Every structure is written in C-alpha cells, then in structure tokens.
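Sample pair:
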Amino acid sequence: MDKMLYTVKEVAEIMHSNTNYVYELIRRGFLPAMKLGCYKVRAKALEQFLAESEGKDLTDLTAIKELPIEK
C-alpha cells in the first residue's frame, strides 16, 4: 500500500527542499497538514499542492509569480 501520510522531513525530501520551507508552506496555509504527534501531510494534499504550484515561482511566498515561459 502506498503511503497516505508523510512527515515534514519526507515532504522536504520529495520536494528537494528543506524542512523549514515545508513548515513555512504549512504555516502560511499553502500546504494542508495535521498534527499527530508531529506534523503530517496527506499524500493527496501534497499532490494537489504540487499540481497547483506548477509553473509558479515559490521562492518568496509573499510574492508568488508565474514563471516566464519562453516560446
């Protein structure tokens, strides 16, 4: 069975990011999470976040921009 829940550390590894960034995504409401001892993120919530974030620059969470696409 595939995993249903990921820890913040696992999410950071999947996203090739760091845990502080994942906590910031959670804190700002971009990535839904629950606390079961420690924060957990549902696999479906992570998939939805990644799909919705595709094509965006999330470097600065206070000023999210569309990525420039050259044709």
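Residues 6 and 12 are 10 Å apart (CA to CA).
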